[in-house]
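FORM 12-B: Structure-to-Sequence Request
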């Protein structure tokens, strides 16, 4: 059946398009998940359990910085005592399945974006539809950068902090596999989605829900929140907090610039039509 224009599509037609978007996206995610399932040794031992290793890149990076700038030697991680256990009969199989699906989602993210673009493109102007490739490339790049940011900064700093945090010597840390994997998935996927902020702000500004004035007004509150979160997940030194905070605030400033550009373009278009 030929695809209808936006003005010709009924509510049921929109639902049908949405249904096929979900079906195609689900198939892509499951296909990538199957691949991840059969590479479980690499996914778990090399990637997910990487931050448990004192030789992990992030720990070496902070140790080199500490030695270079004469900072506290506690930044050099020499041991991470973090035994992981499974306490449920089907726990390992369940975590294997859901982790594979998460990896499948990350790998297939560009395809999912393409499906989303195809769904929303009928509502765009003709001159906007030509930016499909740019939208998918930029959005995917931001997402993967965010995933790497979460994996190489948020996740290892969180693992190191919680592994060394002791409220009482009477309590031994023996972390459940579900808890550990949950921290890793949250750190990476959430960071990836967070890095989509400029794209989200672009569309929110397009529909009038966000303005650059609003973003500038709440900039200082955003900075405080980011610094607090950075202080919680990083070692107790200013340098590591700044390293985590800078990319997030840079994204926020880029979002303000994008919002202002959209408002300016809309204003120019309105002036030309009047």
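FORM 12-B RESPONSE
SEQUENCE OUT:
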């Amino acid at each position: 059946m030929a695809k209808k224009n936006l003005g010709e599509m009924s509510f049921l037609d929109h639902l049908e398009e949405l249904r096929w978007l979900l079906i195609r996206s689900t198939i892509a995610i499951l296909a990538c998940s199957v691949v991840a399932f059969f590479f479980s040794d690499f996914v778990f031992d090399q990637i997910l359990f990487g931050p448990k290793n004192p030789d992990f890149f992030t720990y070496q990076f902070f140790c080199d910085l500490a030695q270079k700038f004469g900072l506290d030697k506690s930044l050099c991680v020499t041991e991470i005592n973090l035994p992981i256990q499974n306490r449920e009969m089907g726990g390992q199989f369940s975590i294997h399945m859901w982790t594979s699906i998460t990896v499948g989602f990350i790998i297939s993210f560009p395809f999912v974006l393409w499906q989303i673009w195809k769904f929303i493109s009928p509502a765009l102007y003709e001159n906007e539809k030509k930016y499909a490739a740019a939208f998918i490339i930029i959005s995917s790049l931001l997402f993967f950068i965010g995933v790497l940011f979460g994996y190489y900064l948020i996740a290892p700093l969180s693992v190191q902090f919680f592994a060394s945090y002791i409220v009482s010597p009477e309590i031994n840390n023996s972390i459940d596999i579900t808890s550990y994997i949950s921290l890793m998935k949250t750190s990476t996927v959430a960071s990836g989605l967070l890095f989509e902020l400029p794209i989200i702000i672009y569309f929110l500004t397009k529909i009038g829900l966000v303005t650059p004035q609003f973003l500038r007004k709440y900039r200082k509150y955003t900075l405080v929140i980011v610094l607090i979160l950075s202080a919680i997940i990083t070692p107790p030194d200013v340098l590591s907090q700044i390293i985590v905070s800078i990319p997030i605030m840079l994204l926020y400033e880029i979002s303000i610039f994008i919002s202002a550009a959209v408002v300016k373009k809309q204003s120019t278009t309105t002036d030309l039509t009047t």
